[in-house]
Design goal:
Rossmann fold; Dna Ligase, domain 1; eight-stranded antiparallel sheet; five-stranded parallel sheet; binds adenosine monophosphate; binds glycine
Protein backbone atom coordinates (compact mmCIF):
# COMPACT_ATOMS: atom_id res chain seq x y z
CA UNK A 1 0.00 0.00 0.00
CA UNK A 2 1.19 3.55 -0.77
CA UNK A 3 0.69 5.97 2.11
CA UNK A 4 0.93 9.75 2.50
CA UNK A 5 1.50 11.41 5.86
CA UNK A 6 0.59 15.10 6.15
CA UNK A 7 2.72 17.25 8.46
CA UNK A 8 6.32 18.00 9.31
CA UNK A 9 6.89 17.50 13.04
CA UNK A 10 8.17 14.88 15.44
CA UNK A 11 4.72 13.34 15.38
CA UNK A 12 4.91 12.79 11.63
CA UNK A 13 8.45 11.40 11.77
CA UNK A 14 7.25 8.93 14.40
CA UNK A 15 4.32 7.85 12.21
CA UNK A 16 6.70 7.45 9.27
CA UNK A 17 9.13 5.39 11.39
CA UNK A 18 6.34 3.09 12.58
CA UNK A 19 4.67 2.69 9.17
CA UNK A 20 8.05 1.97 7.56
CA UNK A 21 8.34 -1.16 9.73
CA UNK A 22 5.37 -2.77 8.02
CA UNK A 23 5.81 -5.21 5.15
CA UNK A 24 2.39 -4.05 3.92
CA UNK A 25 3.90 -0.68 3.02
CA UNK A 26 5.05 -0.08 -0.54
CA UNK A 27 5.82 3.62 -0.94
CA UNK A 28 5.71 6.23 1.82
CA UNK A 29 5.37 9.97 1.18
CA UNK A 30 5.41 12.83 3.67
CA UNK A 31 4.21 16.35 2.87
CA UNK A 32 6.06 18.47 3.64
CA UNK A 33 8.15 16.35 6.06
CA UNK A 34 11.55 17.10 7.62
CA UNK A 35 15.13 15.82 7.46
CA UNK A 36 14.15 12.75 9.50
CA UNK A 37 11.29 11.69 7.23
CA UNK A 38 13.48 12.30 4.17
CA UNK A 39 15.66 9.36 5.22
CA UNK A 40 12.82 6.84 5.31
CA UNK A 41 10.23 8.30 2.93
CA UNK A 42 9.87 10.69 0.03
CA UNK A 43 9.28 14.27 1.12
CA UNK A 44 7.00 16.34 -1.09
CA UNK A 45 7.15 20.12 -0.62
CA UNK A 46 3.42 20.89 -0.46
CA UNK A 47 1.48 22.43 2.41
CA UNK A 48 -0.98 20.44 4.52
CA UNK A 49 -3.84 22.79 3.56
CA UNK A 50 -3.19 22.76 -0.19
CA UNK A 51 -5.94 20.23 -0.96
CA UNK A 52 -5.65 20.54 -4.76
CA UNK A 53 -1.90 19.84 -4.69
CA UNK A 54 -2.52 16.92 -2.33
CA UNK A 55 -5.11 15.55 -4.75
CA UNK A 56 -2.64 15.68 -7.65
CA UNK A 57 -0.02 13.88 -5.57
CA UNK A 58 -2.45 11.17 -4.41
CA UNK A 59 -3.55 10.45 -7.98
CA UNK A 60 -0.05 10.60 -9.46
CA UNK A 61 1.48 8.25 -6.88
CA UNK A 62 -1.54 5.98 -6.48
CA UNK A 63 -1.75 6.68 -2.74
CA UNK A 64 -4.37 4.56 -0.98
CA UNK A 65 -4.26 6.00 2.53
CA UNK A 66 -3.65 9.50 3.90
CA UNK A 67 -2.64 9.86 7.54
CA UNK A 68 -3.38 13.44 8.65
CA UNK A 69 -0.97 14.65 11.36
CA UNK A 70 -2.07 18.15 12.46
CA UNK A 71 -5.57 19.50 13.18
CA UNK A 72 -5.62 22.32 10.62
CA UNK A 73 -6.45 20.32 7.48
CA UNK A 74 -9.05 18.32 9.45
CA UNK A 75 -10.78 21.45 10.75
CA UNK A 76 -10.60 22.76 7.16
CA UNK A 77 -12.40 19.64 5.93
CA UNK A 78 -9.78 17.55 4.15
CA UNK A 79 -11.67 14.33 4.84
CA UNK A 80 -14.88 15.79 3.38
CA UNK A 81 -12.86 17.05 0.39
CA UNK A 82 -11.76 13.47 -0.34
CA UNK A 83 -15.25 12.02 0.16
CA UNK A 84 -16.77 14.63 -2.14
CA UNK A 85 -14.35 14.01 -5.00
CA UNK A 86 -15.11 11.25 -7.53
CA UNK A 87 -11.43 10.42 -7.99
CA UNK A 88 -10.54 10.49 -4.28
CA UNK A 89 -13.57 9.08 -2.55
CA UNK A 90 -12.09 5.58 -2.24
CA UNK A 91 -8.82 6.81 -0.75
CA UNK A 92 -8.77 6.21 3.02
CA UNK A 93 -8.27 9.30 5.19
CA UNK A 94 -7.26 8.87 8.83
CA UNK A 95 -8.74 11.82 10.70
CA UNK A 96 -12.34 12.89 11.34
CA UNK A 97 -14.65 14.69 8.97
CA UNK A 98 -15.08 18.43 9.42
CA UNK A 99 -18.09 18.31 11.74
CA UNK A 100 -16.36 16.07 14.29
CA UNK A 101 -13.11 18.04 13.89
CA UNK A 102 -15.06 20.97 15.39
CA UNK A 103 -14.50 19.23 18.73
CA UNK A 104 -11.04 20.77 18.51
CA UNK A 105 -11.96 23.76 16.34
CA UNK A 106 -14.52 25.16 18.81
CA UNK A 107 -14.35 24.91 22.60
CA UNK A 108 -18.04 25.81 22.88
CA UNK A 109 -18.98 23.00 20.47
CA UNK A 110 -16.88 20.58 22.53
CA UNK A 111 -18.50 21.72 25.80
CA UNK A 112 -22.00 21.32 24.32
CA UNK A 113 -21.05 17.83 23.12
CA UNK A 114 -19.87 16.88 26.62
CA UNK A 115 -23.02 18.29 28.24
CA UNK A 116 -25.25 16.43 25.77
CA UNK A 117 -23.53 13.13 26.47
CA UNK A 118 -22.98 13.65 30.21
CA UNK A 119 -19.21 13.52 29.95
CA UNK A 120 -17.57 14.95 33.08
CA UNK A 121 -15.99 18.38 32.49
CA UNK A 122 -15.76 21.81 34.17
CA UNK A 123 -18.96 23.85 34.50
CA UNK A 124 -18.99 26.71 32.00
CA UNK A 125 -20.84 29.49 30.20
CA UNK A 126 -19.94 31.13 26.91
CA UNK A 127 -20.13 34.78 25.91
CA UNK A 128 -19.81 37.05 22.87
CA UNK A 129 -19.20 40.81 22.49
CA UNK A 130 -22.96 41.38 22.88
CA UNK A 131 -23.05 39.59 26.23
CA UNK A 132 -19.77 40.83 27.71
CA UNK A 133 -21.64 42.43 30.67
CA UNK A 134 -23.18 39.03 31.49
CA UNK A 135 -19.66 37.64 31.33
CA UNK A 136 -18.53 40.13 33.98
CA UNK A 137 -21.44 39.06 36.21
CA UNK A 138 -20.60 35.38 35.71
CA UNK A 139 -16.97 36.04 36.70
CA UNK A 140 -18.22 37.75 39.89
CA UNK A 141 -20.13 34.58 40.80
CA UNK A 142 -17.06 32.34 40.40
CA UNK A 143 -14.17 31.76 42.76
CA UNK A 144 -10.65 32.43 41.42
CA UNK A 145 -8.64 31.33 39.51
CA UNK A 146 -10.67 32.31 36.43
CA UNK A 147 -10.30 30.23 33.27
CA UNK A 148 -10.99 32.07 29.99
CA UNK A 149 -10.83 30.21 26.70
CA UNK A 150 -10.97 31.60 23.18
CA UNK A 151 -13.52 29.44 21.35
CA UNK A 152 -11.50 28.87 18.17
CA UNK A 153 -8.01 27.66 17.26
CA UNK A 154 -5.42 30.06 18.68
CA UNK A 155 -2.17 28.09 18.23
CA UNK A 156 -2.26 26.85 21.83
CA UNK A 157 -2.35 30.39 23.24
CA UNK A 158 -6.09 30.84 23.64
CA UNK A 159 -6.42 29.78 27.29
CA UNK A 160 -5.81 32.43 29.95
CA UNK A 161 -5.93 31.65 33.69
CA UNK A 162 -6.01 34.62 36.09
CA UNK A 163 -6.31 35.02 39.85
CA UNK A 164 -7.57 38.58 39.98
CA UNK A 165 -11.21 39.37 39.19
CA UNK A 166 -10.46 42.74 37.61
CA UNK A 167 -7.70 41.33 35.46
CA UNK A 168 -10.10 38.60 34.36
CA UNK A 169 -12.67 41.24 33.34
CA UNK A 170 -10.06 43.20 31.40
CA UNK A 171 -8.92 40.01 29.66
CA UNK A 172 -12.50 39.03 28.80
CA UNK A 173 -13.13 42.43 27.25
CA UNK A 174 -9.87 42.28 25.32
CA UNK A 175 -10.73 38.85 23.93
CA UNK A 176 -14.34 39.64 23.03
CA UNK A 177 -14.39 43.32 22.16
CA UNK A 178 -10.79 43.99 21.06
CA UNK A 179 -10.52 40.59 19.34
CA UNK A 180 -7.24 39.73 21.07
CA UNK A 181 -7.15 36.36 19.27
CA UNK A 182 -9.00 37.61 16.19
CA UNK A 183 -12.05 35.61 15.16
CA UNK A 184 -10.93 32.79 17.49
CA UNK A 185 -12.03 34.86 20.50
CA UNK A 186 -15.33 36.16 19.09
CA UNK A 187 -16.79 33.66 21.55
CA UNK A 188 -15.16 33.02 24.93
CA UNK A 189 -15.84 30.08 27.22
CA UNK A 190 -15.45 30.86 30.92
CA UNK A 191 -15.14 27.79 33.05
CA UNK A 192 -14.70 26.49 36.55
CA UNK A 193 -11.06 25.98 37.53
CA UNK A 194 -10.19 22.31 38.00
CA UNK A 195 -7.45 21.59 40.49
CA UNK A 196 -5.47 18.42 39.86
CA UNK A 197 -2.81 16.69 37.81
CA UNK A 198 -3.13 16.44 34.03
CA UNK A 199 -2.79 13.48 31.72
CA UNK A 200 -3.89 12.60 28.22
CA UNK A 201 -5.55 9.50 26.91
CA UNK A 202 -5.49 8.56 23.25
CA UNK A 203 -8.22 6.64 21.49
CA UNK A 204 -8.28 5.18 17.99
CA UNK A 205 -11.76 4.77 16.55
CA UNK A 206 -13.27 3.61 13.27
CA UNK A 207 -16.51 5.39 14.14
CA UNK A 208 -17.99 2.21 15.52
CA UNK A 209 -15.59 0.49 17.90
CA UNK A 210 -12.45 1.87 19.53
CA UNK A 211 -9.12 1.01 21.14
CA UNK A 212 -7.75 2.86 24.14
CA UNK A 213 -4.11 3.58 23.35
CA UNK A 214 -1.44 4.28 25.99
CA UNK A 215 -1.79 7.33 28.24
CA UNK A 216 0.81 10.08 28.23
CA UNK A 217 1.73 13.22 30.05
CA UNK A 218 3.44 16.12 28.35
CA UNK A 219 5.35 19.09 29.68
CA UNK A 220 4.10 22.25 28.00
CA UNK A 221 5.98 25.05 29.75
CA UNK A 222 9.45 26.12 28.62
CA UNK A 223 10.88 26.45 32.12
CA UNK A 224 11.82 23.94 34.77
CA UNK A 225 9.18 23.37 37.45
CA UNK A 226 6.47 24.15 34.85
CA UNK A 227 7.27 27.85 34.66
CA UNK A 228 7.47 30.35 31.82
CA UNK A 229 5.70 30.42 28.48
CA UNK A 230 3.71 27.61 26.89
CA UNK A 231 5.37 25.63 24.12
CA UNK A 232 4.13 22.92 21.80
CA UNK A 233 5.50 20.41 24.33
CA UNK A 234 8.98 19.87 25.81
CA UNK A 235 8.78 16.15 26.46
CA UNK A 236 6.44 13.33 27.37
CA UNK A 237 6.12 10.17 29.44
CA UNK A 238 3.99 7.08 28.74
CA UNK A 239 2.31 5.46 30.58
CA UNK A 240 1.38 7.98 33.25
CA UNK A 241 2.35 6.28 36.52
CA UNK A 242 -0.71 7.45 38.47
CA UNK A 243 -3.18 6.12 35.87
CA UNK A 244 -4.08 2.97 37.82
CA UNK A 245 -6.31 0.22 36.44
CA UNK A 246 -9.18 1.56 38.53
CA UNK A 247 -8.69 5.11 37.25
CA UNK A 248 -8.40 3.90 33.64
CA UNK A 249 -11.68 2.01 34.04
CA UNK A 250 -13.35 5.25 35.11
CA UNK A 251 -11.88 7.02 32.07
CA UNK A 252 -13.14 4.33 29.74
CA UNK A 253 -16.65 4.08 31.21
CA UNK A 254 -17.31 7.76 31.89
CA UNK A 255 -15.42 9.38 29.03
CA UNK A 256 -14.19 7.16 26.19
CA UNK A 257 -17.39 5.12 25.70
CA UNK A 258 -19.78 8.09 25.89
CA UNK A 259 -17.51 10.02 23.53
CA UNK A 260 -17.52 7.33 20.84
CA UNK A 261 -21.25 6.66 21.39
CA UNK A 262 -21.91 10.42 21.32
CA UNK A 263 -20.17 10.76 17.96
CA UNK A 264 -22.42 8.02 16.61
CA UNK A 265 -25.62 9.47 18.08
CA UNK A 266 -24.77 12.92 16.75
CA UNK A 267 -23.97 11.47 13.31
CA UNK A 268 -20.42 12.76 13.33
CA UNK A 269 -18.35 10.30 11.29
CA UNK A 270 -14.97 9.76 12.92
CA UNK A 271 -12.16 7.56 11.67
CA UNK A 272 -9.01 8.51 13.45
CA UNK A 273 -7.28 9.40 16.68
CA UNK A 274 -9.00 11.21 19.56
CA UNK A 275 -6.70 12.94 22.03
CA UNK A 276 -8.52 13.58 25.29
CA UNK A 277 -6.91 16.05 27.68
CA UNK A 278 -7.88 15.19 31.26
CA UNK A 279 -7.43 16.45 34.79
CA UNK A 280 -7.54 14.07 37.74
CA UNK A 281 -9.62 15.87 40.36
CA UNK A 282 -9.49 13.83 43.55
CA UNK A 283 -9.94 10.33 42.13
CA UNK A 284 -12.09 11.38 39.20
CA UNK A 285 -11.18 12.20 35.61
CA UNK A 286 -12.60 15.32 33.96
CA UNK A 287 -12.15 16.40 30.36
CA UNK A 288 -10.32 19.66 29.67
CA UNK A 289 -10.28 19.38 25.91
CA UNK A 290 -10.57 17.20 22.85
CA UNK A 291 -8.03 17.22 20.06
CA UNK A 292 -8.87 15.42 16.85
CA UNK A 293 -5.37 14.11 16.16
CA UNK A 294 -2.41 12.67 18.01
CA UNK A 295 -0.34 14.92 20.26
CA UNK A 296 3.19 16.07 19.64
CA UNK A 297 5.42 15.03 21.49
CA UNK A 298 2.99 12.44 22.94
CA UNK A 299 3.12 10.46 19.68
CA UNK A 300 6.86 10.01 20.21
CA UNK A 301 6.12 7.93 23.33
CA UNK A 302 2.73 6.40 22.45
CA UNK A 303 3.45 4.89 19.02
CA UNK A 304 6.71 3.18 20.05
CA UNK A 305 4.71 1.32 22.72
CA UNK A 306 2.22 -0.07 20.19
CA UNK A 307 3.44 -3.43 18.91
CA UNK A 308 0.85 -3.95 16.18
CA UNK A 309 1.60 -3.36 12.53
CA UNK A 310 0.48 0.25 12.06
CA UNK A 311 -0.51 -0.19 8.40
CA UNK A 312 -2.85 -2.99 9.50
CA UNK A 313 -4.23 -0.87 12.32
CA UNK A 314 -4.95 2.13 10.08
CA UNK A 315 -6.40 -0.10 7.36
CA UNK A 316 -8.75 -1.59 9.97
CA UNK A 317 -9.87 1.93 10.90
CA UNK A 318 -10.54 2.75 7.26
CA UNK A 319 -12.47 -0.51 6.72
CA UNK A 320 -14.34 -0.16 10.03
CA UNK A 321 -12.89 -3.45 11.22
CA UNK A 322 -11.04 -2.20 14.27
CA UNK A 323 -12.97 -4.60 16.53
CA UNK A 324 -11.13 -7.47 14.82
CA UNK A 325 -7.73 -6.17 15.95
CA UNK A 326 -6.04 -7.32 19.15
CA UNK A 327 -4.06 -4.35 20.41
CA UNK A 328 -0.61 -5.31 21.75
CA UNK A 329 1.29 -2.87 23.94
CA UNK A 330 4.84 -2.76 25.24
CA UNK A 331 4.65 -2.67 29.05
CA UNK A 332 7.80 -0.65 29.41
CA UNK A 333 7.77 3.10 29.98
CA UNK A 334 8.76 5.39 27.11
CA UNK A 335 9.97 8.95 27.61
CA UNK A 336 10.92 11.63 25.16
CA UNK A 337 12.98 14.78 25.67
CA UNK A 338 12.49 17.59 23.15
CA UNK A 339 15.46 19.72 22.21
CA UNK A 340 14.52 23.24 21.14
CA UNK A 341 16.14 26.28 19.51
CA UNK A 342 17.57 28.99 21.76
CA UNK A 343 14.91 31.66 22.34
CA UNK A 344 11.95 29.34 21.65
CA UNK A 345 8.98 29.80 22.25
CA UNK A 346 9.94 33.41 21.54
CA UNK A 347 11.94 34.32 18.44
CA UNK A 348 14.84 32.08 17.45
CA UNK A 349 17.23 31.54 14.56
CA UNK A 350 17.07 28.66 12.09
CA UNK A 351 19.73 26.93 10.00
CA UNK A 352 22.04 25.79 12.84
CA UNK A 353 23.93 22.60 12.03
CA UNK A 354 23.02 19.64 14.25
CA UNK A 355 25.81 17.22 15.11
CA UNK A 356 25.95 13.95 17.02
CA UNK A 357 22.77 12.40 15.61
CA UNK A 358 24.51 9.26 14.36
CA UNK A 359 26.23 8.66 17.70
CA UNK A 360 22.83 8.02 19.31
CA UNK A 361 22.26 4.28 19.06
CA UNK A 362 20.40 3.38 22.27
CA UNK A 363 17.52 5.85 21.86
CA UNK A 364 15.16 6.73 19.03
CA UNK A 365 15.74 10.08 17.38
CA UNK A 366 12.63 11.77 16.00
CA UNK A 367 13.17 14.92 13.98
CA UNK A 368 10.78 17.86 14.41
CA UNK A 369 12.00 21.24 13.08
CA UNK A 370 14.88 20.05 10.91
CA UNK A 371 15.78 20.22 7.24
CA UNK A 372 18.66 19.20 4.99
CA UNK A 373 20.96 21.92 3.70
CA UNK A 374 23.99 21.02 1.58
CA UNK A 375 23.76 17.47 2.89
CA UNK A 376 23.77 18.58 6.51
CA UNK A 377 20.91 18.39 9.01
CA UNK A 378 20.12 21.90 10.25
CA UNK A 379 17.49 23.39 12.57
CA UNK A 380 14.32 24.61 10.90
CA UNK A 381 11.90 25.31 13.74
CA UNK A 382 11.43 25.91 17.46
CA UNK A 383 11.16 22.29 18.47
CA UNK A 384 14.06 20.51 16.80
CA UNK A 385 14.46 16.87 17.79
CA UNK A 386 12.92 14.45 20.29
CA UNK A 387 14.96 11.67 21.92
CA UNK A 388 12.80 8.69 22.95
CA UNK A 389 13.95 5.89 25.26
CA UNK A 390 12.47 2.88 27.00
CA UNK A 391 12.94 1.86 30.63
CA UNK A 392 11.41 -0.26 33.34
CA UNK A 393 10.08 2.97 34.85
CA UNK A 394 10.03 6.63 33.85
CA UNK A 395 13.19 7.42 35.78
CA UNK A 396 15.35 4.85 33.99
CA UNK A 397 13.85 5.77 30.61
CA UNK A 398 14.51 9.46 31.24
CA UNK A 399 18.08 8.78 32.35
CA UNK A 400 18.63 7.09 28.99
CA UNK A 401 17.04 9.96 27.04
CA UNK A 402 19.13 12.54 28.88
CA UNK A 403 22.34 10.58 28.36
CA UNK A 404 21.68 10.59 24.62
CA UNK A 405 20.45 14.19 24.40
CA UNK A 406 23.90 15.19 25.58
CA UNK A 407 25.40 13.64 22.46
CA UNK A 408 23.43 16.10 20.30
CA UNK A 409 24.64 19.58 19.70
CA UNK A 410 23.58 22.72 17.87
CA UNK A 411 24.08 26.39 18.63
CA UNK A 412 21.54 27.56 21.24
CA UNK A 413 20.20 24.05 21.99
CA UNK A 414 17.92 23.98 25.02
CA UNK A 415 15.83 21.30 26.72
CA UNK A 416 14.08 20.74 30.03
CA UNK A 417 16.15 18.79 32.53
CA UNK A 418 13.38 18.14 35.05
CA UNK A 419 10.80 16.04 33.19
CA UNK A 420 8.85 13.86 35.59
CA UNK A 421 9.53 16.24 38.50
CA UNK A 422 5.83 16.21 39.45
CA UNK A 423 5.33 12.44 39.43
P1 LIG B 1 -6.60 23.70 26.67
O1 LIG B 1 -6.08 24.47 25.49
O2 LIG B 1 -8.07 23.69 26.79
O3 LIG B 1 -5.95 22.35 26.78
O4 LIG B 1 -6.02 24.44 27.96
C1 LIG B 1 -4.64 24.68 28.11
C2 LIG B 1 -4.23 24.40 29.51
O5 LIG B 1 -4.97 25.22 30.42
C3 LIG B 1 -4.52 22.98 29.97
O6 LIG B 1 -3.53 22.10 29.57
C4 LIG B 1 -4.62 23.16 31.46
O7 LIG B 1 -3.32 23.20 32.03
C5 LIG B 1 -5.23 24.52 31.62
N1 LIG B 1 -6.68 24.44 31.82
C6 LIG B 1 -7.63 24.42 30.88
N2 LIG B 1 -8.86 24.36 31.42
C7 LIG B 1 -8.70 24.32 32.75
C8 LIG B 1 -9.59 24.26 33.86
N3 LIG B 1 -10.90 24.25 33.71
N4 LIG B 1 -9.05 24.21 35.10
C9 LIG B 1 -7.71 24.26 35.27
N5 LIG B 1 -6.82 24.34 34.27
C10 LIG B 1 -7.29 24.37 33.01
N1 LIG C 1 1.44 18.32 23.09
C1 LIG C 1 0.19 18.93 22.98
C2 LIG C 1 -0.46 18.84 21.68
O1 LIG C 1 -0.05 18.15 20.77
O2 LIG C 1 -1.48 19.51 21.53
Amino acid sequence: MNILILGSGGREHTFAWKLAQSNKLSKLFVAPGNAGTEKIATNIPIGVNDFEAIKKLVLKENIQLVMVGPEDPLVNGIHDFFLGDQELKNVAVIGPEKLAATLEGSKEFAKEFMMRHEIPTAQYKSFTADTVEDGFKFLEELNPPFVLKADGLAAGKGVVILNDLNEAKVELKSMLVDEKFGAASATVVIEEFLDGIELSVFVLTDGDSYKVLPTAKDYKRIGEGDTGLNTGGMGAISPVPFASKDFMDKIEQRIVKPTVEGLKKDKMPYKGFIFIGLIKVGDDPKVIEYNVRMGDPETEVVLPRIQNDLVELLQAVADQKLSEIDLQLDDRTATTVMTVSGGYPGSYEKGKEITGIDSITESLVFHAGTTLKDGKVVTNGGRVMAITSFGTDFKSALAQSYKNVEKLSFEGMNYRKDLGFDL
